[in-house]
Design brief:
mainly alpha; 10 helices
Length: about 230
Amino acid sequence: MNKKNIIYIVLVILIASFVASFYLTDFYKSNESDLDKIYTSEDFPNALKTTNEEILQLSLEDLNGQYQDLRDGKYIYLSWINIGILKKRLGDNPGTEEAWLNAIDYGPDRSLAYGNLADLYLFNLGEYEKAEEYYQKVLNMAPDNYTHYHGLASLYRYNMTEKSNLIEGIMLKGAENNPMGIENYYMYLANYFAEGPEDNGGNDKEKAKYYIEETLKINPDLKDQLPDL
């Protein structure tokens, strides 16, 4: 190998190292600034309202372990996901949101954090427009997950009720994308249309009967989970 080629290879390695260092430094600066923090029960004053002392201590141990993995540069996306789960268990919803946003920053093409955030915004933070945004994002990325269709339908049924007319289309789209689980979507619609306004239902007995019949064609064993009309 001649001298010119050696110099070229060294330059490539140096540039690659610089880019990697810049990326990782920028990533960590743009998210939690104190990755060296060791969490204690004092950081989660509301934890014992929803859990017990044993689970609290085990969760803290796990949480600090996840941060150690981040410091070691291991399992970064999964660590942020787990940190969010643990902080949610410990009653820290803002910390949960931050962790899952960090996961998206690191792996924007992975769907798990989007779905987690959609549920967090809907069920815990009451930020309905953000919930809608993230349900739509996760359904575009992973259109085969019943839970997210159900979440978006629930959002429109109970919170953004001005969009309740979209529920049927959402569930039918889910059925189209998930033919192996189509009965779940039809069963949801059967129960939805069987309910009246007092239960934020669709209040349409004819549609309810139609979806009951369609559900039973696919799986007669679901009869006990369907409305009796």
